[in-house]
Design goal:
mainly beta; globular; 1 helix
Length: 258
């Protein structure tokens, strides 16, 4: 489903609270209202400016693909208000972002009112344009439940073209193997399994920011991100992922002008 600008609600934005938390530090789970208030500053809604692309029905509630776009935004925050922790992630766009868009895969929690393990959620998408506006939209999503198989963190994978024209906008895809333990599950003895997630991702090109992402437990295992970058010259991309335990994973890719 795609939402046009007419379908969206726009809100003036204040400071993003998550940006005050040091990279690598686990963030306390805010309530839905707290997350919205921190991002928007409590501004009044108006219309326009945001598109969400997501399936009407997802086969696997643990890996629901979603793409968000808000031209002119400096940040986009995505919330899922049916999850125990509604925060999903917040995208921040740097000067070399090719577009204010990003795609990822997220989790939906089982809905207590649905039989058979079904899942339900209303997406909430907010963005903060450079002029200090923001946008909000709610959707309904129903998906069947399923379980995920955990896997350890390992070498990240990045897809970048080998060459591009000067000024060209390219698409970049990244993935890192990580179980993204949410801190919501219990083991066979009834003990809560501690949270352990990749909490931050960033991409720079020749030292300039393309995109960074504040990540919460609702991002699916093996975090995947797709985004666009402008190529002003030949150079090197640096990609970093930060784990809750302080581990930093890094990948580098060069691109030529041709």
């Amino acid at each position: 489903m795609q939402l046009t600008r007419r379908d969206a609600l726009m809100m003036g934005a204040g400071a993003v609270a998550a940006t005050l938390i040091p990279a690598g530090a686990p963030r306390a789970a805010p309530t839905l209202d707290e997350a919205i208030a921190a991002f928007t500053g409590g501004a009044t809604p108006a219309e326009g400016g945001v598109t969400i692309t997501a399936p009407e029905i997802a086969e696997n509630g643990n890996t629901v693909p979603i793409e968000v776009e808000a031209p002119g935004a400096s940040s986009i925050m995505l919330l899922a208000d049916g999850n125990p922790n509604p925060a999903v992630c917040t995208f921040h766009f740097g000067p070399l972002a090719g577009a204010q868009m990003a795609a990822t895969r997220i989790r939906l929690a089982p809905h207590p009112e649905r039989a058979g393990g079904g899942q339900a959620c209303r997406w909430q998408l907010w963005h903060r344009p450079a002029r200090g506006e923001g946008h909000h939209r709610r959707l309904r999503r129903l998906t069947p439940g399923s379980r995920r198989a955990p896997c350890p963190a390992s070498s990240p994978r990045v897809k970048v073209p080998k060459s591009a024209s000067a000024g060209e906008v390219i698409t970049i895809k990244t993935l890192i193997n990580h179980q993204m333990e949410s801190g919501q599950r219990k083991d066979s003895s009834g003990n809560v399994i501690p949270r352990k997630i990749i909490n931050r991702f960033a991409c720079t090109f020749n030292g300039q920011e393309v995109i960074s992402v504040d990540i919460d437990p609702a991002v699916s295992a093996n975090p995947y991100f797709e985004f666009q970058a402008k190529i002003p010259e030949a150079g090197e991309f640096v990609f970093t992922w930060v784990d809750d335990d302080g581990t930093v994973y890094e990948e580098r890719k060069e691109i030529a002008i041709g």
